[in-house]
Amino acid sequence: MRTTTDVPVRKNDEVTLDIIGLTQDGEGVGRADGFTLFVQGALPGERIKAKVLKVKKQYGYAKMLELLQASPDRVEAPCPIYRQCGGCQLQHMDYAAQLAWKRQHVIDSLTRIGKLRVADVAGEGVVVHPTIGMAEPWRYRNKAQVPIGMALADMADGAAGSLIGGFYARGSHRIIDMDACFIQHERNDEAVRLVKALGTRLGIRAYDETTGRGLLRHVVVRTGFATGETMVCLVTNGTRIPRVDELVEGIRRALPDVRSIVQNVNTRNTNVIFGDETRVLWGSDVIHDELDGIRFAISARSFYQVNPAQTVALYRKAVEYAGLTGRETVIDAYCGIGTISLFLARRAGKVYGVESVPEAVEDARRNAALNGIANASFEVGLAEEVIPRWREAGVAADVIVVDPPRKGCDAQLLDTIVRMRPKRVVYVSCNPATLARDLAVLEAGGFRTVEVQPVDMFPHTGHVECVVLLVRK
Ligand code: SAH
């Protein structure tokens, strides 16, 4: 076994590196004497001079000192805080190159983890299409989720200080105060700035995760791109907000498009943003948005895709892959507020949605009614528990759609899909690694992966979304 004494580099060494790859976190992968070093800000094809920061048994980290040979894909990152902020990872890479890299990343996961054969130009195997990108890949996010802290100078002298809020610095929980985020809807930036200013004036203290004291933890703002309606959610460590009426009044006066101001209470010492209790401070408990002619009510804790333009592309592809004629029975697992379910319901006989967050299921039912869609029903629960019960009750699905969180599908759910033998499975995934793992299970269970469509939901970040068609062999 290798120990750190056999590795060919040591901390503080200066090395020349050829960058041969890019990680999901946007770090360049370099090799020094066969040893892997990760370098923030370096791109594939580049040659750099770097200083070794840290060495582990199998790999290490280095910092770029000098760019000896730049990649043709290198561009100037437009955001002034790009280097400090942990939110984006690929702003220094040309957008077309980002799209090509994301597709390659999907291919690599499918082949290495899923052991699938990917079709090259004319060969047999899974077809991986070019990534669907955005014409204007900026200001695309409908949701800002901003951790709040106190300005450092104020912490030192203990005086009532000003609130800061922004992003966590790369790899840490240090908050970088931010006025504007180039991938965020302007209104959301404006609302966050406003809450920071009002909160500071009203003497509201930020929560401090090391001491567990202080009140305001996060400000979460969501704006419907189609409707212009905005929700402001204050996540607090405790129920009482001092001078709450003045705060609500201040938000309403400055931002007339705000339709909903809510408070979510989270008193736990955790990285999870939301607590269980949400209360309306003013207005509605939901805002609305519209995708492809379907209207959605969205409450604070419900999942709703952050990039509405690309979401429409993704959902249309999912519906196309479902191959519906109007008669099919379809299951939509991990259905959230019923977005994909309602897209499917327009073309299917009957849609069953299942989702674990109760508020999201309430939203889903409300959304079906809002759009006069009568052939979709929803149940609260874990997909891996509810769908086996449906199967026992005699539900026979022609198509099963899954859209799990990053950790992928539960093994029990995959097993149930295999037993239910639908004609098609449509897998929507935000994580190519767990996607590839689950596709291998479905392949072994009698399905064939036909095609994969990567969609760029998160430009300038390392994330890539995919929609995949599988058919029963
Ligand atoms: N298809 C929806 C939501 C996808 S996000 C959309 O496109 O908007 C994944 C969803 O799965 C979230 O709403 C999350 O609350 C839910 N979820 C997570 N684990 C689950 C499980 N085991 N069973 C059912 N739903 C789950």
Question: Descriptors for this entry?
Answer:
single chain, 473 residues, OB fold (Dihydrolipoamide Acetyltransferase, E2P), Rossmann fold, 3 domains, 8-stranded mixed sheet, 10 helices, 31% strand
Describe what is shown at a glance.
β17 (350-355), α7 and β18 (376-380) form a beta-alpha-beta unit.
SSE topology:
Blueprint: E1 14-22, E2 27-32, E3 35-40, E4 47-55, E5 59-69, H1 95-112, E6 127-128, E7 143-150, H2 152-157, E8 163-168, E9 175-177, H3 186-201, E10 216-223, E11 230-236, H4 244-254, E12 258-265, E13 277-283, E14 286-291, E15 294-299, H5 308-322, E16 329-333, H6 339-345, E17 350-355, H7 358-370, E18 376-380, H8 383-392, E19 399-402, H9 411-420, E20 424-429, H10 432-444, E21 447-455, E22 465-472
| General shape | globular
Total domains = 3
Q: Which regions have little confidence, pLDDT < 50, spanning 5+ residues?
A: 155-159
Give average pLDDT, whole number.
95
**Fraction of residues in helix:** 25-40%
SSE class: alpha/beta
Under the CATH scheme, the architecture of the largest domain is: 3-Layer(aba) Sandwich
Q: What is the C-level CATH assignment of the largest domain?
A: Alpha Beta
> In angstroms, what separates the terminal alpha carbons?
44 Å
Major beta-sheet overview: 8 strands, mixed
Q: How many beta-strand elements?
A: 22
Distinct small molecules = S-adenosyl-L-homocysteine
Query: What is the radius of gyration?
Result: 24 Å
